[in-house]
Amino acid sequence: MITLNAASLPLAAGIANNGFVAVLLGLFIIAVVLLMAFFVLTYGRIWLQAFMSNVPMNPFDLVFMSLRQVNAKTIVDARIQAMQAGVGQDPTTGITTKRLEAHYLAGGNVPRVISAIIAAHRADIDLDFDRAAAIDLAGRDVLDAVKTSVYPKVIDCPDPEKSPRSTLSAVAKNGVEVKVRARVTVRTNLKQLIGGATEDTIIARVGEGIITAIGSSNDQFAVMENPDRISKAVLERGLDAHTAFEIVSIDIADIDIGENIGARLQADQAEADTRKAQAMAEKRRADAIAREQEMKAQVALRRGQVVAAEAEVPRAMAEAFRKGTLETLNNGSPS
């Protein structure tokens, strides 16, 4: 039987405390190892990729990104892409982790914004991160806008996908219809992309300008001889004002001669005049017939009045005989 004296009690307590501390230290070390293993398995590849790409990245930022529901790989890939392209290196206005996170949380498309900035930098186009992010959040495809700035886009006027007609129809001064199909070459105006009018406005304005130019021509031959005159007249009107595009050129792709609308309108007018004249003649005929009937009625009325007057003569004579006031003429003198 083991007995503990008073001197051995502090020693036992110290051993127990040391054992408890050792257990806590062991649990702490195990937790640290597990956390490190979790970090390595989850973020190790991303952090190593950033480190090897010379992109400084705090390991805790990767964890905080996940807590903020941000895709850490998307942010890191964007930073690496910008670093390798040599864009957005300014620590204040450049492409930083916090600014990329803010754009991601705002619902923006981070990869397309970075690709657009790199493409603009290669094409020597002034496009910083703030403008690119604003264009993206406005609902425009910023990468497509940059590509359109580098490689102009061709728009059909009228657009066969949005209009049932394949040509524009205009009438020259001599009344002949001219059918035209145009192709408009445009490039994006990044400064007016936010709030600027879209392709539909360009098509509408160009169509209006072409119709006006043809309408001011004397005949269809003037249009067919100099189709470039139409393009110049349309370009001089500044149709790309307040739009998201800059018109590079307007080319007449096809010209056809339609019907003589002026002659048809004249024929229609002549036919309408003929019908109007016939209607007026018929009205006059009807008025004459009515007047004739009125005159016949007047004649019958007057005859009736004469007969009535003649009927009054015998009555008056009888009345005179009765009263003895009737005088006869005998040899020119009264009897």
From TrEMBL:
Its main location: membrane. Keywords: Cell membrane, Membrane, Transmembrane, Transmembrane helix. Coiled coil: none annotated. One of its GO terms (cellular component) is plasma membrane. It is found in: Cell membrane; Membrane raft. It is a single-pass membrane protein. The keyword Membrane applies. It holds the Pfam family FloA. The chain crosses the membrane at residues 20-43. The keyword Transmembrane helix applies. Belongs to the flotillin-like FloA family. Homooligomerizes. Found in functional membrane microdomains (FMM) that may be equivalent to eukaryotic membrane rafts FMMs are highly dynamic and increase in number as cells age. Flotillins are thought to be important factors in membrane fluidity. This is Flotillin-like protein FloA. It comes from Botrimarina colliarenosi. The lineage of its organism: Bacteria, Pseudomonadati, Planctomycetota, Planctomycetia, Pirellulales.
